[in-house]
Amino acid sequence: xxxxxxxxxxxxxxxxxxxAVGLIFGTYALVVFLTAPIFGSLITKIGSKxxxxxxxxxxxxxxxxxxxxxxxxxxxxxxxxxxxxxxVEAVGTSMFLTASFxxxxxxxxxxxxxxxxxxETFTGIGYMVGPPIGGALYQRGGFGLxxxxxxxxxxxxxxxxxxxxxxxxxxxxxxxxxxALLKIPDITIVVSxxxxxxxxxxxxxxxxxxxxxxxxxxxPVVVGLIFLIGPATYALSAPLFGWIVDxxxxxxxxxxxxCVAIAVSFLLxxxxxxxxxxxxxxxxxxxxxxxLGIGVGATVVPPFQDALEAAKAHGLPDDMExxxxxxxxFNSCYFLGSFLGPTIGGYLQEAYGFRWxxxxxxxxxxxxxxxxxxxxxxxxxxxxxxxxxxxxxxLVINLRQCKxxxxxVKIQGQDTHRYMY
Length: 421
Hints:
Blueprint: H1 2-13, H2 18-41, H3 43-46, H4 48-66, H5 76-107, H6 112-141, H7 144-164, H8 178-182, H9 185-213, H10 220-247, H11 251-269, H12 282-300, H13 302-313, H14 320-352, H15 354-387, E1 405-411, E2 414-420
Antiparallel strand pairs: 1-2
Helix pairs in contact: 2-5, 2-14, 4-5, 4-7, 5-14, 6-7, 6-10, 9-10, 9-11, 9-12, 9-13, 9-14, 9-15, 10-12, 11-12, 11-13, 11-15, 13-14, 14-15
């Protein structure tokens, strides 16, 4: 956060408008959104280990190069170099994230959600320690030092990972199809929408929460600690949700509960302006940030394993190609949400104020929860009707049946498979 603020000041001095600065920040998420499905489709052609290594090296090198941008001439050259560096860095990030998620699915079949939850724990830790470390490095050595140090660390760790990581797959012609994945209703209707929404939630508070907290006259340190509550609870809860998905199932149940939890958190954070006499309280904000982090864990961790199981249940092979497709789509949806969250949040706060902005975002998550609920109900009815020719089925809303699996059944004298949720 501190480095972002200093970059914004530096860019303004170099002739970049506030709009240009916003676009430079937004380019990163947009490029990952556009390129992740492409790399997911080509993972077996390129090779997952090579894609992982190349991507992480690109990210490290471009991070170091970003630290030299303050040496560029002012004006359009500086702006173009910022866009170019951020674009290449985003391509590298897209490559190694897509490859890393696919490698997790390939190396830990049946336990992908657990490992994904652990991975997200370290992601949350990075969100927590990154801003203070970056701020300390900036104060110690100026604009470039944070980028030089972190870029160097990424290069060293990337080299170690390439040395330790076993070979995952053989190069082979690409035969999969992202379109085949998008034809699966579970992935298109439930997983994709939920991942986008989950990523939006944390992105929403970045440009909006600081202004909301001004009314409490807090010190910058306290404001920073409040911002850390969401990522901290997310980091702590992610492994638990991964364990539940692998051991107990109920992925869609957790996604439903996660969306409701996030909606409640934003209604408390505002708080809801429709209730007269209810005013903003610091303790309400703190509680809402805790609930938000838990809700994000429930909406971001389960979808990856749920999408893998849905893909395999609909006939896609249980191999690296399918893992790459799912990983590419997941990262694309996540970074789309990361772009939409601050963009929509900033606009809503400017147009309607924080209380109504947070209420509108809460409505988005309640709508997502309703979509998941209706999907599970409709799927339950269709599944029961397909197994019973007479179709005398009573409508029972049972979200505990929302785990994808393949079960053999006999319909009209023929052995076939039906997809359970």
